[in-house]
Amino acid sequence: MKHSGHRAPPAEPQLRVKALESLLAEKGMVEQQTLDAIIDHYEHRVGPHCGARVVARAWTDPEYKSWLLADGSAAIAAMGFAGFGGTHMLVKENTSAVHNLVVCTLCSCYPWATLGLPPVWYKSAPYRSRAVRDPRGLLKEFGLELGADVEVRVWDSSAEMRYLVLPMRPDGTQGLSVEELAGLVTRDAMIGTAVVLPPGR
Questions:
Q1: Which of 2, 88, 110, 131 could form a disulfide with 103 if both were Cys (CB 3.0 to 4.6 A apart)?
Q2: CA distances from 69 to 87, 89, 131, 135, 146 (A)
Q3: What's the predicted TM-score (pTM) here?
Q4: Does the annotation count 109 as an active-site position?
């Protein structure tokens, strides 16, 4: 079959974004150049890929890991990931005995500089209430079932303090580069609703 040269249409969320961009620019409410700068900021300068690089460096650099756990704000800022929602940061390390989970019970305080835009579920009332009332049950719904011997610690973010989970490094990743390790780290693992899986999982 001959290729028509047409590309598949964008997904519905992308279409909505494009329509909103066009409307705002058409009505003179915002300049296209400003929109482009905002989009570039959230695609390249902030987002889960930033937090993933912090995690990967901590996994491969013991000195940096110690610094990150002692002064998350300074260690993260040293990598260039600071600013709105990321000035006051505490990093909590997951271990075989302790699993950390982050929530904001009052609103949706979130480390934008390292994780980008918060997922819709993070801001929802069910997540905010169940994270405190029944964290194990909540994690199970996310597909993460922890052993009875693992302590679950819930950290409540606020306007003054944001949290980032340092997940455990998965087995079988000893030969991977920092970039390859960062590619394994997900946003959910840095919130605590997931763990980092080995390559191929």
A1: 131
A2: 15, 10, 23, 23, 23
A3: 0.79
A4: yes
